[in-house]
Specification:
Elements lengths: L11 H4 L23 H19 L2 E4 L5 H11 L11 E5 L5 E10 L3 E9 L8 H11 L5 E6 L3 H5 L4 E2 L7 H17 L5 E6 L1
Antiparallel strand pairs: 1-2, 2-3, 3-4, 5-7, 6-7
Length: 202
């Protein structure tokens, strides 16, 4: 999932590649050339690949529980995204094979005709493992259209992979127009290059 005190969601993780990107990739991890690579480095690479896929296979998605409502709020606070509208009943959580929460996300309603992919957050130690992508794909699977989201402009390319496209101010519902104006003011005052991007999935 806009005052100067918070970034419109999602992702903190709403997701940059270094913080639980929807692609589940980390830009800092490049592929080394096979030319001149030693058996030792190849073995290490295989172990890393197996470890990554083992982690991926243990991600499970389920509805949040009431007992996790405070954990949801704490994770949202940790990632610094929009702290409003955190009804636990709307949330999906990604958990490991011990049922420990890895990340969260929700489809948030605004009024009766606007739905937003929001509150996407992953614990720092679990970022870059495909958690955010799993949450997004799960939430998009059965969600009505159109669906909106807000993110920093640098993350637009990531969400385009899921079918979202950035929309101009004139096409935004009034709710997002108001937030867009507030975010623009906050960006100007903070002298930040990033701007709020509102995206839509038909």
């Amino acid at each position: 999932m806009a005052s100067p005190r918070w970034r419109p969601s999602p992702p903190s993780l709403a997701g940059s590649p270094s913080a639980g990107s929807p692609t589940g990739q980390n830009r800092s991890s490049g592929r080394s050339s096979s030319t001149g690579s030693s058996p030792r480095s190849s073995s290490s690479s295989r172990r890393g690949w197996c470890k990554h896929h083992l982690i991926m296979s243990t991600i499970k998605l389920r509805p949040a529980r009431e007992t996790e409502s405070s954990q949801i709020r704490d994770l949202i606070h940790l990632t610094g995204i929009n702290p409003m509208g955190l009804d636990w009943r709307r949330f999906v959580v990604a958990v490991d094979d011990r049922d420990q929460v890895l990340g969260i996300g929700q489809i948030k309603p605004h009024g009766t005709d606007i739905l937003e992919l929001a509150s996407l957050a992953v614990y720092p130690q679990h970022r870059g493992k495909g958690v955010a992508r799993a949450i997004i794909e799960h939430l998009l699977k059965d969600s009505p259209r159109p669906l909106y989201l807000m993110c920093e402009s640098s993350l637009g390319k990531l969400y385009e992979k899921f079918g979202f496209r950035g929309i101009p101010y004139e096409e935004m519902p009034r709710y997002y127009q108001r937030i867009s104006k507030l975010a623009e003011l906050a960006t100007t005052l903070a002298r930040r290059e990033e701007r709020l991007l509102v995206m839509k999935l038909q």
